[in-house]
C-alpha cells in the first residue's frame, strides 16, 4: 500500500461522528444539522430540464476537455462576472467534476516529487483536501494561520524566506471556508509578488464566490490579476463550481481556468486520470452558467436568512456577518469557558442541533490551533429551520452562562 496514505487524518465529519458516539440527542427536539456545507435550496428547474434533455449523450464517451459549447459558456461567464478580456475557451478553460477532485488533482500534476523538501502552503483553518493533496503528491503541507485581526486573512508576512523557497503550490480560498473572508486587491498583489519571486503556483478556490452580502461581488483571482496587468494569468489556476452557486452539489460540475501552459499539462494528467464529465451533465452545466436569474434568487435567500439569524447569535456568541459564503464562524467561549468540542457535543445532546467544532477544520501550527473554541455553522437549510436552530443555540448558550 502507498505509505503516504498513513499521513491522512480522518475527515472532520468522521471526527464529529466519533465525538457524538454514544450520545442520545434530546428527543423533544427535531434534528437540525448546521454541520455540513451542503446546499439545501431547490435545484432550479431549468437545470433539471437541461439534464434530462441531455440524456441522449449517454451513448457517447465524453472527452476530457469537454464540449466546445461548455467551454464557451464557462469562458463567457468568467468574462461577464469578472470583467475579464476575451478568454480562450480552447486553452484557458477546462471543465472538471466538481472543484474538490480538481483541487486534489492539481497537486498531483504540479508537485515535483523528486524534491523531497517540497511544500504545499495553505491557510489554517482550511479545506482538508489541500492537506491530503499535499501528502499524496509527496510534499508536506505548511499552514499559515488566519488572523482575526486581519479579517481572518492568512498572515503571509510571517512566513520565513527559507520556507518560501520550498513552496511549489499555494492553496487559497476566497471567499474562505470556514471564515467567509474575501481577499482584497492588496492581498492578491502580495501573493502574486511572492509567486513571481519564488515561482510557486497559486490554486485559487472560489467555489463560494456567488454567495455574498455586500453590494460588490467578491474579487476573484483572475480578476485581480487582470487589474494588476498580469497578462495570461501566470502561475494562477482558479477553481469554481456550480454546487453552491446553482444548488447542484450532486451534479459534480465545475471548472478550472487561468494559465494556459499549466492547463495544458493538467489536461494531460486528467486524460489518464479518467475524469471526463458526463455529456448530460455538460448540457445542464451550459444552462446553469448561461443563466444568472436563479443565482440572484439563491443569493437573495441567503441574504434574508443571514440578516435574521446573525443578530440572534450575536447576542450570545462572538460572531458577525461574513463577507461571503454560507457559514458563520463563531467563537463560543465569550461568556463562559468551554471548548468547541464540548459546546458541539452538549448542543447536540441537549438541543439536537449539529455544528462543526472549529478545531476539526484546522491544525496546530506555530503554537496554536486557530480553530480552537470556534464552531462553524452552515446556514444551508431554509430560513425557518435555520431560525429554529439559532433560537435553540441562544437558549443553550444562555443556560451555559
Question: Mind explaining what this structure looks like?
Answer:
Its cofactor is pyridoxal 5'-phosphate. Keywords: Aminotransferase, Transferase. One of its GO terms (molecular function) is succinyldiaminopimelate transaminase activity. Residues 32-393 form the Aminotransferase class I/classII large domain. It comes from Noviherbaspirillum denitrificans. The chain has 2 domains: 9-42 and 294-400, Aspartate Aminotransferase, domain 1 (Alpha-Beta Complex); 46-290, Aspartate Aminotransferase, domain 2. The chain has 14 helices and 13 strands. Helix 2 packs antiparallel against helix 11 and helix 7 (185-198) crosses helix 8. It has 401 residues and is an alpha/beta fold. Strand 7 (201-205), helix 8 and strand 8 (236-241) form a beta-alpha-beta unit.
Task: Give a nutshell description of this structure.
With 401 residues, the protein is of the alpha/beta class. It has helices at 12-19, 45-53, 68-82, 99-110, 128-136, 161-164, 185-198, 221-227, 242-246, 260-273, 279-289, 293-314, 340-351, 383-400; strands at 32-33, 93-96, 119-124, 140-147, 153-154, 167-173, 201-205, 236-241, 254-258, 327-331, 353-354, 356-357, 374-378.
CATH topology category name of the largest domain? Aspartate Aminotransferase, domain 2
Q: Let me know the number of strands.
A: 13
State mean pLDDT (0 to 100 scale).
97
Structural class comes to alpha/beta
The portion of residues forming beta strands comes to 5-15%
- Termini separation comes to 50 Å
The number of domains: 2
CATH homologous superfamily grouping of the largest domain: Type I PLP-dependent aspartate aminotransferase-like (Major domain)
- The radius of gyration computed from the alpha-carbon positions, rounded to a whole number of angstroms, is 21 Å
Amino acid at each position: 500500500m502507498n505509505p503516504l496514505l498513513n499521513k491522512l487524518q480522518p475527515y472532520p465529519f468522521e471526527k464529529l461522528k466519533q465525538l457524538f458516539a454514544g450520545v442520545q440527542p434530546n428527543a423533544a427536539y427535531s434534528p437540525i444539522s448546521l454541520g455540513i456545507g451542503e446546499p439545501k435550496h431547490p435545484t432550479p428547474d431549468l437545470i433539471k430540464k437541461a439534464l434530462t434533455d441531455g440524456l441522449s449523450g449517454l451513448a457517447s464517451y465524453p472527452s476530457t476537455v469537454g464540449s466546445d459549447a461548455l467551454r464557451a459558456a464557462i469562458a463567457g461567464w468568467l468574462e461577464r462576472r469578472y470583467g475579464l478580456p476575451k478568454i480562450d475557451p480552447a486553452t484557458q478553460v477546462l471543465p472538471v467534476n466538481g472543484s474538490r477532485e480538481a483541487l486534489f488533482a492539481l497537486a498531483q500534476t504540479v508537485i515535483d516529487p523528486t524534491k523531497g523538501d517540497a511544500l504545499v502552503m495553505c491557510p489554517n483553518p482550511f479545506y482538508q483536501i489541500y492537506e491530503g493533496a499535499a501528502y499524496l503528491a509527496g510534499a508536506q503541507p505548511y499552514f499559515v494561520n488566519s488572523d482575526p485581526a486581519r479579517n481572518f486573512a492568512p498572515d503571509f508576512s510571517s512566513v520565513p524566506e527559507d520556507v518560501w523557497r520550498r513552496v511549489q503550490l499555494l492553496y487559497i480560498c476566497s471567499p474562505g471556508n470556514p471564515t467567509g473572508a474575501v481577499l482584497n486587491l492588496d492581498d492578491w498583489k502580495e501573493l502574486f509578488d511572492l509567486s513571481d519571486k519564488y515561482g510557486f503556483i497559486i490554486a485559487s478556490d472560489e467555489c463560494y464566490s456567488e454567495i455574498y452580502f455586500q453590494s460588490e461581488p467578491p474579487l476573484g483571482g483572475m480578476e485581480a490579476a487582470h487589474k494588476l496587468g498580469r497578462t495570461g494569468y501566470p502561475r494562477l489556476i482558479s477553481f469554481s463550481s456550480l454546487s453552491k452557486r446553482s444548488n447542484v452539489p450532486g451534479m459534480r460540475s465545475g471548472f478550472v481556468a487561468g494559465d494556459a501552459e499549466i492547463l495544458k499539462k493538467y489536461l494531460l494528467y486528467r486524460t489518464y486520470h479518467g475524469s471526463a464529465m458526463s455529456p448530460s451533465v455538460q448540457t445542464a452545466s451550459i444552462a446553469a452558467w448561461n443563466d444568472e436569474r436563479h443565482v440572484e434568487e439563491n443569493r437573495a435567500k441567503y441574504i434574508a436568512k443571514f440578516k435574521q439569524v446573525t443578530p440572534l447569535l450575536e447576542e450570545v456568541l462572538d460572531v458577525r456577518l461574513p463577507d461571503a459564503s454560507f457559514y458563520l464562524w463563531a467563537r463560543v467561549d465569550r461568556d463562559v469557558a468551554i471548548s468547541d468540542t464540548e459546546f458541539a457535543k452538549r448542543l447536540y445532546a441537549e438541543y439536537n442541533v449539529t455544528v462543526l467544532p472549529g478545531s476539526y477544520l484546522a491544525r496546530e501550527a506555530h503554537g496554536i490551533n486557530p480553530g480552537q473554541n470556534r464552531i462553524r455553522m452552515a446556514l444551508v437549510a431554509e430560513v425557518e429551520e435555520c431560525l429554529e436552530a439559532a433560537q435553540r443555540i441562544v437558549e443553550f448558550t444562555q443556560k451555559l452562562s
